Amino acid sequence: MRIISAIQNLTVFLFAIILSSQTSAQQATPTQNRGKWGYKWKDSTWLVKPKFKVALAFSEGFGVVANGNKWGIVDMNGKYLVKPQYSKINSFSEDRAAVLITNEDEQTQNWGFLNTSGELIIEPKYKRVESFKKGKSLVSFYSDEGTEQYYINVDGKRLSPDFRTMTRINPKIWLITNLRSGGNKLYGYLNEDGTKYTEWYLNNFNPFADREPVCLPSKPKEPLVPGNVYQGNVNRKLWAFRNSDGKIISPWYHEYGRFQKGYGTFRVNYRWGIIDSTFTTLCQPIFDEILHLGTFGNDYYFKASNEYRKWYACDKNGKKTGTLPYENIEKYNDSLLIGTHTQEFKGKTLIQKVLFNLKGQTKSSWYNEIHPAKNGKIRVEVSREWLENGKVHFGNFYNYLYSDDFSLSTNWRRILYFECDKLKSNFLALKDSLQHKSRTLFSAESLNYQNKFDRQIHFDDQNKTISFRGFDNGSGYTIWATKHGNQIKFGYRNSQYSIVTDCKFDAAYGFHDGKAIVMVNGKFGVISNSGNYLIQPKYELLGSFGGDLAPYFNGEKWGYLNSKGQHVIAPLFEEASSFEDGLAIVKKDGFWGIIDNIGNFKLEPSMARPPEFEANGTIKIHDPSKGWIPFKIIN
Fold first, then answer.
1. What are the percentages of helix, strand and coil residues in the chain, rounded to 5?
2. pLDDT tens digits, one per residue of 282-292
3. Which helix (DSSP H) or strand (DSSP E) does residue 167 occupy?
4. Against a cut of 0.85, is the pTM above it?
């Protein structure tokens, strides 16, 4: 008898499991009848007859229902787990259902969470909640700063700090922001599970970079760099560098300058010093200002100031090279600097420039302009007065210095310039980057180059150019112009001011490598330095030449042609750059890649952002999870 009883009990138990499985597999669905909602099985029998104002679909074995303005929960047997008593209930997710509770005075409402037993397991204190997903819910609340939010787990415990906004930067990391510290905007990062990834900082930074500057709103425990500095009331923001693990790897500064060639600048209170790439202090903060100047041979130089608008050159250890201060200093070449100051002359403010070496020794006289050296000579200009036809005139003269000893190579010549009517001419012009080798990207939207600008062209009584300053790009050719009614036409002169071409172009651009782009009747072509057409003006748009190739636009796509006008690479690209070192950046089907000078892809079009080419010839591509990373072209 006992054996039979045991078998009967087991049979009942298995039948209950099968019935439960069938019930779960065949969940009742919300069904409306005569304006009321209930739940009906697939065989059209009612689990719960229509009596509710609202009935939501079953989720995790429970259905949310409403009678009047009150909400409750029913189980798979149609019995109440929670009778209608709450202002709102959301469907279950991960064994939690969000519930809205109205206070007795009905003036405030807050969200909490119920468990599958109908118990209020998470206190109702939030203004907005999201259903649980992967063990977390995003909840919002009101504070004195405004609406804020944070993540909680299924037990109601906080996972993250408070934040205002969040932006996904990759599948695992969120950028969050908040306002604190007197209205300052704070930045931080969260893991995908809602836990904190970084501390709060005052700047938005790349959390994956091996070296990234971060800014704190208050003084950290780490001491500032020691030095002979004025301890005054300074900005409380402090900067340091962190690695990709979040560890602070530098001292704290009040400000820092951008690193170049392994050296950088920093400020403590009101004074600046110099550090190397390991954050070792090379020069204590003793300067009012300090700026990068450039590399000279194997060393690196800065310009520093201890007085208002007075600059010195100094080495990386802060040692001054020379004692003569200037109003400004700039690099001239690998062994010389240019120092400047202003001079008042009969109501005119003139800029004076002089060449000096790294020891502070002056190597030239003072001039108003010093041009880059070319073919062993340096063009210099001075401003002078002269008497002509009983009138005093003021203008510029030019001469040349030998690069080796800085002696004058010829007589001074006057730059033609008279006081006459000035006419401003608006005309299409290529971007500055078109006038030198550059990977500037060209697109259909740049058809009009989108950078019309004004140049002052000075005409004589015969409407011929007297002075067209700023259009000699160092190639030895100058653009000149004539006026015909309201139209201006452009041509070229050489370094001896002899005419290379008549003024016949609607627009003319600087010579490079013996080629210049011109426009006639809205079409673009190319001429040689003898003025002859290499490419007839027939293209909607031309980019600059890199080597012997230039991008052209056929009205739909970009391709490449050579200086003979032959189409070398078919027009397949939405955007294209000029070539340099045999490579160009292109955009195809919405993605960026790199091609060689025969059109083969060295980097397939797969990048969402265009690659970047550094001055040292290296290439960087953008990885959404790692930021900018080096990329090597494999031949």
1. 5, 55, 40
2. 999 988 888 88
3. strand 165-170
4. no
